[in-house]
Design brief:
Length: about 220
């Protein structure tokens, strides 16, 4: 059976870093994959030109992965702590009602970036199980340079319990990330091709695979 899968990304490229290989695999298996990018940059922090570049790069990367639809919301990047929680809840609830996803992928609550934490909370509000359109499965993904930079002894620690085999799709993920030319960095920066490959190799070898992406299962309803 084909499924509808919704990935919620706080910023452009988070979806590639955390779910890129899984997106490519699900799309290749004839599932419908939707990506929503929650924020955009506003002056004085970001220029309009930077915002347009981000969106163009996202669309090019998503085309490589086989994304059915990319949805851009307009909440302010790096300033979600100033946005009323209910405003994000409402926008995400409308998306879930329209798309009616079977599976939902969200950033991890323990990420260092406050935007990630707030998007996680709003995602779970919108996906409450008493919502008739709520997804049956919800997974949290890891984002290099955000998930692993927080203090695990005082915040939630990312301990994955679901692994998706992306051995056949790792190169597609890396190709998509290269299209985010404004975001990818040279090694040893964690947002480098080498670091993404290393993490996929590590997660894969954990479960005897060549490459994998790891997730934390939040809820599964059968």
């Amino acid at each position: 059976m084909n499924h509808k899968i919704l990935i919620i990304a706080p910023h452009p490229d988070d979806e590639i870093l955390g779910v890129g290989g899984t997106i490519a695999r699900f799309a290749a298996e004839k599932n419908e994959v939707y990506v929503v990018i929650m924020t955009q940059g506003y002056p004085p922090d970001f220029s309009e030109e930077m915002n347009q570049i981000d969106r163009q790069e996202a669309l090019a990367a998503h085309q490589i992965l086989g994304v059915k639809e990319t949805i851009f919301l307009s909440f302010p990047a790096a300033r979600l702590d100033n946005v009323p929680h209910r405003d994000m809840n409402e926008q995400l609830l409308k998306l879930i009602q329209r798309i009616q996803p079977d599976m939902l992928f969200v950033p991890f609550i323990g990420d260092l970036h406050m935007d990630h934490q707030r998007v996680f909370l709003s995602s779970l509000v919108a996906a409450r199980p008493n919502n008739p359109y709520a997804p049956k499965s919800i997974y949290a993904y890891e984002t290099l340079s955000e998930t692993n930079w927080n203090a695990p002894y005082i915040t939630a620690n990312f301990v994955p319990n679901v692994f998706v085999n992306i051995s056949a799709f790792l190169e597609t993920k890396l190709e998509a990330m290269r299209l985010y030319a404004s975001q990818i960095k040279p090694f040893p920066n964690e947002r480098s091709e080498e670091s993404l490959r290393a993490l996929a190799t590590l997660r894969g070898s954990t479960v005897n695979l060549f490459a994998a992406e790891a997730f934390y299962l939040i809820r599964q309803i059968y």
